[in-house]
Structures are given as C-alpha cells and as structure tokens.
Amino acid sequence: MSARFAIRPGSTSPLGSTPSENGTNFAIFSERASKVELCLFDQSGHNEIARIPLYRDEQGIWHIFIRGVGQGQLYGYRVYGNYNPKKGEYFNPNKLLLDPYAKSLFGEFNWGNSHKSDDAFRQLDSASDMPKCKVVSLPHYEGIKPNIPWHKTVIYECHVKGATQLYRSIPEELRGTYLGLAHPNFIWHLKSLGVTAIELLPVHSFISEAFLPERELSNYWGYNTLNFFTPHLAYTHTKQEQEFQQMVSVLHEAGIEVIIDVVFNHTAEGNEQGPTLSLRGIDNQAYYRLQQDNFAYYVNDTGCGNTLNISHPKSLQLVMDSLRHWVQVYGVDGFRFDLASILGRDQDGFKKHHTFFQTLAQDPILKGIKLIAEPWDLAIDGYQLGNYVAPWREWNDQYRDTVRSFWRGDMSMLPGFARFFHGSSHLFEKKGRSVTSSINFITAHDGFTLADLVSYNNKHNLANKEDNRDGHDHNRSYNWGAEGVTDDSDIAALRMRAQKNFLLTLCLSSGVPMLSAGSEVSHSQGGNNNAYCQDNEISWINWQIDKNTDIQQHALYQFISRALKLRSEFSLYRQNHFIHDDDPRFSVTWLNEHGALMQDSDWHNAEGHCLGYLMEDIQDDKALLLLFNASSKNVMFQLPSQEAHHCWRIRLYTFSNERDDECLAPGQTLLLNSHSAWVLSSHIKMPASKQESEDASQTFNLTKQGV
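Structure for Glycosyl hydrolase family 13 catalytic domain-containing protein, as requested:
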C-alpha cells in the first residue's frame, strides 16, 4: 500500500486501539506470529488504504503509534506465521482479523467463500466479508447504580429484541432495541410487576453459525460471540454503542439493575472446520484449549466446537479486561456466565479456586458486582451446582426440575420440594453461603416457556429444521389433557391454575426468584423448547391480549405482581441466613394435608402431594401460611388454631381470583381445591414470657427429614 503515515514504536499497554490528541496507539498479543500488519481502511470499509508492520516486544505484544490517525479510523489485522492445522497453527495473512480488544465494529459479517476451511478457499482474502474495527474513545459510565442487595433482588430474564418487538405502547422505531427496554412504558411494566433487575441474553457482538443462513434461519439468542467488548449493533436504533450506555442509565434511574449474559466459554470461530475471524488467526494455541494428543482438534466442553483457554494469562486478561470494560464504560451491575464451569477448569479439571475465580475476587473494579454462574458444561466433571464460593450465585436447575415434578404430581416429591422451597440449604449452607445463593427459576430462555410447560408433553421443534432432534426430551411438562392449543375451557382453566401454582411457588421460595420474560402474559412458542434460531413471532413475546385489554390486566401479570408484593411484606425474605429450628426470630413448621405436624410417615409417603408451610415472625408479630395441593383431589385442611393467631386472611390463591382477603377463624377447615396453592397470613400475639415463647416454639417446630 502506498499511503504514508508517520509511525513509531507504540506502547504495549493497553491492548487494542487507544486514540490520543496526536494519533492512535495499537497493541495486540501474539506469542507465535512471525509478523503482524495493521490494515487501515477508508470510511466505507471496502477499500484497504495501508498495511503497516508492527513492532514486537519480548513478551509477544505487537505495537505501533501512528500519528494523525484518530477516532473513526477503520482497521483490522493480518497475522503471519506457520499454517499447519495439525499442529494447531492457523496463521494466514489472507484473513483479515478482528482486534480482540476492538471497542467498536463497523459493517456486517458475511458468510462468503473466504470463510470456508478448504485449501482452495484458504487463499481467498476475507476482508470484504468482515466487519472492520473502529478506533473510538468511549466515556466511562457516570450514572448512579441502584446497588440492590441480593435479598431484595427479583430478576427478569429477557431478550433485547424479543421483549419489545411486539410491545405496542413503545414507538415502533424503538421496538426490539436497547432504547425500547429503556422506554418509560416498558420500565413501568417492569416496576409494576415487581422486577428489580433485568438479565439480558447475550449482547456482545455475535454472528449466526454457518449452517443457519443455509436453512433461512439465524442465531437469535446470541450465544456465538464475535467480540467481547462491543454491544451487538443490531439492537441499536442509530447504530451507536452509546445507546447501550443510555439504556443502562435510564434503567438505573428507575431503580432497575442490568445483568448481562456473557459467553466466555467459546467463540464464533467454532471447531477445526470453522472460520478464521480473530483469535484463531492471531494465536490459536494461546487462546483455545487443544486436545493434548492431537493439536488439530479442539477441546469441546461447550458443545459449540471450541473452548476458550482461560488458563493462559492472555486469555484470562482478555476476559477480565472485557468484564471491567462493561462495568466501567457501560455501567452494568452484574454478569451471568454461560457454562461457567469452563472458566474454572484447567487440564486437571474444575477447581473452585481456579485462577479466574481468584483474579475476579481480588479485582477492585469488579468488587460488589453481581456474579451468577450457570454451574455446568459438557465435560465429565462439568456439573458443579453448589460448588462455587461466595459471592457467586448459581442457576439452580435442581430447584426447577423438582418444582416441575411436584406440580406434575410425580411420586415421592414432598421432601425434595420442601428442601428447595426453603432455600436449598443442602447445596449451599454447608459452605457458609447465603440463602440467596440459589437463583430459583421454573423456566428460562432455554426450554419450554411457562405456558408451553403446561400445554405440551413433547417438544415441537420442526421449525428449527433439524427433524425435531434438537432440544431436551425431559421437560417434566404436562399438557392437562390436550397437546397444544385447545378450545376446551376446562383444560384452559387447569393450565391457567398450573401456571399460577408455579409462579406462586417461585415468588415465595427462599432464594432469588428469576422470571422468564413473557410468563406474565402466558407467552407460547408453540411447543418449541429450543428456539435459539427463531428470530420471529415464535420467540418474540406476543403482548397482544385483545384490543381493549392492557397487558397489565392479564391475570398472570396481576398474579405475579401480587405475589411479589407479598414477598416484600415478610421479613423472612429479607434474611441472608438459612432458617432452622433454633432461629431466635423465625419459627418454621411443616404441616400435612390435615393441618397436623408432618411426621416421618408423611415425608416418606410416596403418594403424598399436599404440604403446608407455616412461618412465624416473632419480631414482626406476623405469620405466613402457604398451602400446596398438587393432588387430583380436594383436601380439607384445618388451619392452625393456637391462641397466638388472630384470624387467617386469604391473601392469594391459584384456584380463582376471587375471595381476596377473606378472613377465616383459627382452627377452621379450609377446602384446598385440587392442583391449587394458597397464601394466608395472620398477626400473632407475643407470648407473655420467654418460657411461653419456648413452649410455643416446641409446639410448632419440626425435626424435618432432610428439609
């Protein structure tokens, strides 16, 4: 290239492109490259105007300072070295590579022939099919964060586009964007529901896998990362990264935190047949885990073709620098780590004190950030639920499965249901962790929606064009008599009650509740339990109830709102510790279907489907009674009749929306309808003496069998 630039050796830190008044510094790591060229492009991104060799230092940092090059400059890299895939080497100057530290991208990715792995296509230049990196200087976030404690946190997991694409009270041009989530009408929707944090599916720049465009599909969820520092621009209105920062600021002003789902376990470069886009062509052996007996193949603990080598110092630095960037520049409040067990694994397996966890724990910028693990991956030792350390929280899939099975009426579920409802102490307490360590959920982006969980016995994934082979086969779902859509009013009523049963359980379990977006309006995906490739009406939440009904009038929206208000009313849910029989403030009692104390025979009754949970708060003079009847028969339940209780008020129940706040006398018999859940509350009288308090405690405490 003939263009001339004033150049000199640059700084090796920070990595990436760093503009200043006089020019821009470029720095990139490659331990094994023989030569690195910086490629500059004109403002169209189509014409390469210069190739400039970089200087190398002794630690494998390639660097240069170019005078007169400033913000807005488009660039990429070409990296030279050996091309020998059998030895794990993919250096190829024909491939334009993205800077792993790029803070802005320009242009679109295209699955052209230059990305094919065949020898014939290896000689093709990929620049025309690649987005370009853009030199930018982004201001740090200056908003005030809500800093909501875990015990007050209610998470709403949603997709940026799917949450608002069909939300009719948001201006059409903002639907499906970051600013759509920040629109006052959607914020009001979240606040009225009781949400304190949104957890966004991946917002790092991502691309579709090669096979999806061939099927006229695309990657919708976003678990196929192209770059760890840039927001996905398809979710912007003006194609500016600052919109993400604006969204966070507006949500923070409303008291709502922002957690983002991050994918540091693999990248979009896939397996050995995948494209060379960035890390593979820069230093494949440093950034990826390769099979030790054959460097031609990747370790695939992710099921996505490759696994990031988090044990390498520069891979670790890349992840840590990305996390700090999203906190400092975009103001996010936390991260949910996809397949988090991979981040704690080296060649010898998973370690809860892996270098990554230690590095994260000591980082002053990330102190206080919410950390959520999806505590599994596909390796032999991949399932690690309960094995993380504070301050980590974990997605509790055992809670999900047990609650689903209980309400489906499976046998022998009472002990497990009680354990998980009461906070999953058997998983977390022995390690000295908080009762908020468990992220409780019934549904999430992966799997059936709440409506489909009660409408389908089987997955219906034909729209994914994999002959219905993809997705889970063990959904623990029940269709209540008909598969899918039905005009049967009795089945519809049962399904509505079943959804309420799940929601009541979720909202009033100890731990941190996580709602899946759309649950409040009974959103269905038509039985598709793996809608990762459905960027259409299958996945977009259908908020349309009818022309004359507001979203907030939906029965489930109102039910969730009331349940979460009840949760905020009781101090039990504001504690960080697990409640046991010797607690000085709270007394918890488990009751059988007759209202009597649960006995060993009750816990071990395989056909038992009814359970009562009585919590008394001595300090606040309040009692909370939850009743669960997962059986197919009505049950006559005798309410607690101790003198300490005033009348029992019916606060919420799933059989009907009627009888709210009706008062029942202590000792009165209550008809628990089949497949229903109830919430009652009462004020209690303080005992006249400590001895009376101890006597009352003895009366109500229970040696719980494994609870």
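The chain has a mean pLDDT of 94.
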